[in-house]
Q: What sequence folds into this?
């Protein structure tokens, strides 16, 4: 499992570095441009991240078919997911391009920052289809038990983005537009690399199908039924090769099936984003020091989440493979091992946060009030890491099992529990520590819901498709 989780962690961490590089480069152009980038990047990230089901659902579906011993069907499933990503990307781009100015105004961009935000968003929107293809293709490779290739592509994409930003912003003098074009070029390059890997897999399946059919033809010839058998076998070989090559074409039924499988995970993701938005809105009402400390705490929490999500990604691939291979006991054993890993990693991460608390405050702020609020909030984050470890693991297990509807309903219940608890914080005159106590309540609610489902065994449905 570690062989899958460690490269997955590297790829997860590499992706946010795109925005960090853009911020570092654009920050030297002036405050207004940096503020515009912040607004545009938040809108762009939201527009892409709500479709993260393209990776999660594809991983589970492809892994099941690999477990069932049908790599051709696994690739067919992956191709359908990629076509769905292209269609969704085109639709989002078509919506963002004419509405860029309205979106940045709706998001509260200042009059000085709004033109730069709209310019960056309008250009970056051209890369949205590529970003969604990257999500879907990453899911294909994870389902094929390959997390190293996404790591290599992510590192290459990050490096290209850094170089292009410097060259286009400063060398070509394009300003914030150069930063946007650099990101678009890097994302399209990543998508092209993923598509090359997937197409190579399809061609390999075609060659193997031809080789098997040729072997049958030769066996038939040796059995002295050469003429008719050879002709039939050759026809079978041609049909098999043509069938596998046809996987590259869009299949309406397959795309609709991918979309249906993704709807519950979309509901789950939107609900989780609503939790984070409510938390930020509440923190903003507590005061400037509290919102500043909240943003730092959320940054630390997100970084820890990447580490735990790497285990969840490995869980998706492993559980899907076991269920596809009709091995429920193997799936249960893998689930138990991953829970142990989740608890252990959560304990280690929690201890690291406790030890790093005195250093994190000065690293981000010199304001004593921010540091004080941050110290208490980080302690809550540290204490909840073992819980987060189990939650992320079980989330990955149920995703790998294709149990999307339950994940959607459980996240809606979690949102219903969290929202009143968080909104009560300002009314009760409490501070940031109480808000992060509500975040801990949110994670405990998720833990209870996911644990009950895991114990019930109702997620265990074997076969090549759920």
A:
């Amino acid at each position: 499992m570690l062989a899958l989780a460690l490269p997955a962690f590297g790829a997860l961490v590499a992706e946010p570095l795109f925005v960090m590089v853009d911020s570092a480069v654009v920050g030297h152009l002036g405050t207004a441009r940096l503020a515009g980038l912040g607004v545009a990047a938040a809108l762009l990230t939201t527009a892409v991240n709500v479709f993260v089901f393209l990776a999660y659902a594809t991983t589970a579906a492809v892994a099941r078919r690999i477990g069932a011993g049908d790599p051709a069907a696994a690739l067919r499933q992956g191709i359908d997911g990629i076509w769905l990503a292209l269609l969704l990307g085109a639709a989002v781009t078509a919506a963002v391009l004419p509405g860029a100015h309205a979106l940045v105004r709706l998001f509260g961009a200042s009059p000085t920052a709004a033109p730069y935000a709209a310019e960056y968003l309008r250009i970056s929107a051209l890369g949205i289809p590529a970003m969604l293809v990257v999500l879907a293709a990453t899911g294909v490779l994870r389902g094929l038990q390959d997390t190293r290739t996404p790591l290599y592509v992510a590192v290459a994409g990050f490096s290209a983005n850094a170089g292009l930003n410097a060259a286009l912003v400063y060398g070509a003098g394009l300003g914030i537009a150069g930063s946007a074009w650099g990101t678009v070029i890097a994302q399209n390059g990543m998508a092209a690399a993923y598509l090359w890997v997937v197409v190579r897999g399809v061609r390999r399946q075609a060659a193997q199908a031809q080789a098997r059919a040729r072997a049958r033809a030769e066996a038939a010839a040796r059995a002295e039924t050469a003429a008719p058998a050879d002709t039939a076998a050759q026809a079978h070989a041609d049909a098999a090769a043509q069938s596998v090559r046809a996987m590259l074409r869009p299949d309406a039924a397959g795309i609709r099936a991918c979309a249906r499988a993704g709807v519950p995970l979309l509901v789950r993701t939107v609900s989780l984003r609503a939790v984070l938005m409510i938390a930020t809105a509440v923190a903003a009402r507590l005061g400037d020091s509290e919102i500043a400390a909240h943003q730092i705490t959320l940054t630390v929490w997100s970084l820890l989440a990447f580490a735990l999500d790497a285990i969840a990604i490995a869980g998706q691939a492993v559980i899907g493979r076991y269920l596809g291979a009709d091995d429920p006991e193997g799936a249960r054993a893998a689930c138990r091992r991953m829970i142990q890993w989740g608890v252990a990693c959560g304990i280690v991460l929690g201890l690291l946060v406790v030890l790093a608390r005195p250093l994190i405050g000065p690293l981000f702020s010199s304001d004593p009030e921010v540091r004080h609020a941050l110290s208490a909030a980080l302690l809550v984050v540290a204490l909840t890491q073992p819980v987060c470890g189990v939650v992320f693991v079980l989330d990955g297990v149920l995703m790998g099992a294709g149990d999307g509807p339950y994940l959607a309903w459980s996240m809606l219940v979690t949102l219903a529990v969290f929202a009143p608890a968080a909104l009560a914080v300002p009314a009760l005159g409490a501070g940031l520590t109480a808000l992060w106590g509500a975040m801990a309540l949110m994670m405990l609610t998720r833990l209870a819901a996911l644990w009950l489902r895991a114990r019930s065994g109702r997620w265990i449905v074997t076969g090549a498709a759920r």
About this structure: The radius of gyration is 24 Å. Residues 387 and 444 are 7 Å apart (CA to CA). The chain has two domains: 1-250, 262-466. The mean pLDDT is 85.
